[in-house]
Specification:
The complex is a heterotrimer, with one copy of chain A and two copies of chain B. Chain A is mainly alpha-helical. Helices cover 59% and strands 5% of the residues of chain A. Chain A has a three-stranded antiparallel beta sheet with strand order 1-3-2. The chains are: A mainly alpha, B alpha+beta. Chains in contact: A-B, A-C, B-C.
């Protein structure tokens, strides 16, 4: 059985470089007719396989065809000047060289990347720890907050709080300096309005983020405790 | 695992990267050696650290072993932490972040209107910290840029998704 | 700070606890020594690790120094982590990243021109992965956004600084 192996190309330049390499051609002296034919064959193969052809491939196809036709035209020399007309392939060659450079740089980067993936720093360890710890608890925290807001609904004054986030954070830290742990619910016992509940909650989040405190519960839906780090 | 010294070095590396105390069982399982042998190697390592007068130590804790610093060095570590506190978000950054979180995608002008002050600096800080990102342009005159929160935002605040944010109208009604 | 050996031990402890690469400035500031002295101490430490055949190493990365494991030990660590660290970048992402790394700051159009394809999706991926960032706008019509690589890029590729990238004109010669 004959099987078509279709390499995936990053773009038209990638495809052209592949064709040039396969045929062992010099980028500055591309046989345009041949390369154009192969290029278009590849596109029709993609089409036959129902693969979407990015518009960029078509742009370069048009460019190839235009170069091909320009090369077929007889070279006209302007009278009185012996300047030779520029090779219509030069612009494409320059682009390909430029692209090839970065393609090789990408290979070098890839090598570094796989090497450094095998090296573990201490910060990698710390990262793992953080996400494991906070993520599951925060969902519970939010649920707990909703409960508090519901409970306090109607009983609270509507006041613009004059307590800032900074002050609340300091207050929470002072509380924890004296106690090993505090019950989440207790933090909201004396809050007088919704704004203060929200600020207390935000302060809590910020302290968790700064790793000043952490929250724990023994099992799901049980009381939430706040500990100092 | 035959080589004694090699095994000791592997244990050192494992203790270095482990996110929690490593049990003797776990260590001996990975190295395919007896727990008693693993214990001896850990003690040798600990002794070497001690004899070299290192600031690092290996301690037995919570049914396992962990690499840690000696307490005499805590002052130095404190100084390191002190400098890291600058990573903290300012109240105005927190405020801006909250606005973006709830009203995304949002333009800078809209943020400014809510806050009543120019937010150009804060928005840049939040971009730098990767808590917000550009997501396109609003289809109004001037085509202003639109900002949204990032995955990093969710991670930083330990949120499973944006829908896990408390509903704003639940937080402050009336 | 007089005692040479003591200073070395403090540096070791600091490198151990730091959650990110520590700059020479920071280290020398904490120890109240000259950066050049700090650098020498780090090199001594690195040499000691090497001579002892340790599985740990100290590398220069992202404008700082960091303690890490030698790559020969990754198999052992992976047994500990169970799940592999699989963070592969696609070839097009790698290609785009290479272009940005060498030509920064650069606009998306300039990237597109070199690659011959539209890079909007890849650029977003790289932004999401924090390997690149926005650094401003180019002073040409349309004021397009400019992209540069980040500190995270240096960290991910184990580069001390951008100048440690292999020179592009050496990469390709006929």
């Amino acid at each position: 059985m004959y099987q078509v192996r279709l390499p995936i190309f990053e773009g038209p330049f990638d495809l052209l470089l592949h064709l040039i390499k396969k045929e062992e051609l010099n980028i500055y002296d591309i046989p345009v007719a041949k390369i154009t034919r192969q290029y278009l064959e590849y596109l029709s193969l993609m089409e036959a396989l129902d693969l979407e052809i990015a518009s960029e491939f078509l742009v370069i196809a048009a460019m190839l065809l235009s170069i091909k036709s320009r090369m077929l035209l007889p070279k006209h020399q302007i009278e009185g000047e012996d300047e030779v007309e520029e090779d219509p392939r030069l612009e494409l060659a320059k682009k390909l060289i430029e692209y090839k450079k970065y393609k090789e740089a990408a290979d070098k980067l890839e090598q570094r990347f796989s090497f450094y993936q095998q090296i573990y720093t201490h910060s990698y360890k710390l990262e793992m720890q953080e996400t494991d710890l906070v993520e599951c608890d925060l969902f519970e925290l939010l649920k707990a907050l909703q409960k508090i807001l519901k409970k306090k609904d109607g009983k609270m004054e509507i006041l613009i709080s004059n307590i800032s986030l900074e002050e609340k954070m300091e207050y929470l830290q002072k509380l924890l300096a004296n106690e090993e742990k505090i019950l989440f619910l207790d933090l909201f016992k004396e809050t007088r309005n919704k704004m203060e509940v929200v600020i207390t909650f935000l302060a809590l989040l910020e302290l968790i983020r700064l790793k000043k405190i952490y929250v724990q519960q023994q099992k799901l839906f049980s009381e939430i405790w706040i500990f100092r780090q | 695992m035959k080589d004694h010294e090699k095994a000791k070095k592997i244990i050192e590396v494992l203790l270095f990267v482990a996110a929690e105390p490593l049990s003797l069982d776990k260590i001996s399982q990975i190295l395919e050696i007896k727990p008693a042998v693993a214990r001896n190697l850990i003690f040798e390592l600990k002794k070497e650290y001690w004899e070299a007068g290192k600031g690092l130590d290996i301690i037995e804790i919570a049914n396992g072993y962990e690499m840690c610093t000696r307490h005499e060095y805590s002052n130095w570590i404190e100084q390191l932490k002190k400098q890291r506190r600058e990573n903290k978000l300012s109240p105005s950054a927190m405020e801006t972040l909250a606005i973006i979180a709830y009203k995304q995608p949002i333009t800078r002008l809209e943020i400014d209107n809510i806050r009543g002050v120019n937010s150009i600096g804060v928005v840049q800080t939040l971009l730098d910290k990767k808590l917000i990102k550009l997501v396109g342009r609003k289809d109004v005159p001037g085509k202003p840029l639109l900002y949204s929160t990032t995955l990093e935002f969710l991670k930083t605040f330990g949120l499973p998704s944006l829908s896990a944010l408390p509903r704003i109208d639940e937080l402050i009604q009336k």
